[in-house]
Amino acid sequence: MQGNLFSEISSRAAEFSKGHRRIAEYILMHYDKAAFMTASKLGDSVGVSESTVVRFASELGFDGYPEFQKALQEEMRTRLTSVQRIEVSFDRYGHDEVLKSVLLHDIDRIRRTLEETTPSVFSEAVEMIVNAKRIYIMGIRSSAALASFLGYYFKLMLPNVTVIETGSRSELYEQLMHMCSEDVIIGISFPRYSRQTVYAVSYASDVGAKSVAITDTADSPIAAKADRALLAKSDMVSFVDSLVAPLSLINALIVAVSVRKKELVAKNFERLDRIWEEYDVYEKNGGGR
To answer: How many CA atoms lie within 13 A of 225 on its CB side?
Structure first.
């Protein structure tokens, strides 16, 4: 089903049967809880049968309850306040098995990211990056860590890489003022989506530059503005954003670009190794960067 799920449920409430209307009302009022309930538990909560819940999902155009639940979770994540995220996190994890639960969820996110990533789109994004005159990278709030990581390695590998420092909207455009059609911007944004990052990608489109979005769904605001969207699952509802799958995708992007720019990257790191050795940058028994 296309469009806003909550709006669809709300607009059709009058035509629902009594049982379906009770389900709709509960979802609209308690979406943070309903999104993680089984069909049976949701039915118990509103006083209807499990089969009634399944038929409700079908009436909205879904193939079954799991598909409806997935759509509900996706849309619900953009609406949660930080307090609601904390409450949902406590409900899901409690005090037991937190380590196991969180790591297993992250493993599942990487698996789903791999399954849903289109190799041709990934390759096209790599082409845009290796052929760009200048590369701009932007991500704020929790995505700033991802932007910083990507920028660190791209700066070691390639010339003319800029990580956009966030500030006022006017400062954003000042940092982008030299962008042209030969450049590319990589915008990184996950729920709740950053308007500043969307503005940056929109500006790139206005000046004819290429753009790559790293985000969670094709329906995200930044994906709609970008030339290519690389999707990584980041659906932890906790107040702590899960960056494992996005970081893994970024690792793949770094490696893919380094392979395409093999000779340049090799020369850069040979020079860096000499500099690090000459200026005693690292401990002699350390191998990290």
So the answer is: 26
C-alpha 65/C-alpha 209 separation (Å) is 42
Q: What CATH class is the domain 111-278? A: alpha beta
- How is domain 5-79 classified at the CATH fold level? Arc Repressor Mutant, subunit A (1.10.10)
pLDDT digit string, tens, across residues 236-280? 555 566 889 999 999 999 999 999 999 999 999 999 999 988 888
Place of tokens 């992250």: 106
DSSP line for the chain: --S-HHHHHHHTGGGS-HHHHHHHHHHHH-HHHHTT--HHHHHHHHT--HHHHHHHHHHTT-SSHHHHHHHHHHHHHTT--HHHHHHHHHHHHTTSSHHHHHHHHHHHHHHHHHHH--HHHHHHHHHHHHT-SSEEEE--TTHHHHHHHHHHHHHHHSSSEEEPPP--HHHHHHHHTT--TT-EEEEE--SSPPHHHHHHHHHHHHTT-EEEEEES-TTSHHHHHSSEEEE------SSSPP-HHHHHHHHHHHHHHHHHTHHHHHHHHHHHHHHHHHTT-S-TT----
C-alpha 288/C-alpha 160 separation (Å) is 24
Tally of CA atoms within 13 A in the half-sphere of 143 that contains its CB? 29
**Closest to 194 (Cα-Cα) out of 76, 78, 74:** 78
Calpha distance 147→163 (Å, rounded): 7
pTM, rounded to two decimals? 0.72
CA 18, distance to chain mean position in Å, is 38
pLDDT, tens only, 194-230: 899 999 999 999 999 999 999 998 889 999 999 999 9
Q: Strands 135-138 and 228-231, how do they pair? A: unpaired
